[in-house]
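Appendix B, Record 12. Input sequence as logged:
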Amino acid sequence: MCADRDKELLKLLQQNAKLSNETLAVMLDEKVEWIEDQIASFEREGIIRGYSAIVNWDRIDQDRVTAIIEVTVIPQRTVGFDEVARRIYGFPEVEAVLLMSGTYDLQVVVSGHRIQEVARFVSERLATIDFIQSTTTHFILKTYKVDGVVMEGDDDDHRLVISP
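Logged structural output:
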């Protein structure tokens, strides 16, 4: 169980993993050694699973297509959701797999260079896995915000100027 201070550190790292240990120490009013020890501990315990950048792929790769696929699984005694999820997240085009509550069981996020690539993944790889009953594919048309970061527009300040 993480203490409140640990959670504050994790939140800061999640917002900007490029912050130096010295900056984090100042922000949290802690010693640099404490920051280093906590981060090392989080990594060892698997709490921090990796570091990544939030990339606006729409500005880089016009041919990139991302889809969210709803997957319904036929319940089996010998195979649970975890085993089906493992088979799915083993494919290189799969970016995320989440167990969901509601009308479907798993949500799969997949990227490719063309709609046909994603369609082929669904029909030839995903739908052929045992215990998958059905899939529904939704293509992402535009991304507005990811992990708390707004993806569109420039970074200029667009607030209204108020003058006396």
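Helices lie at 4-15, 21-28, 32-44, 81-89, 115-126.
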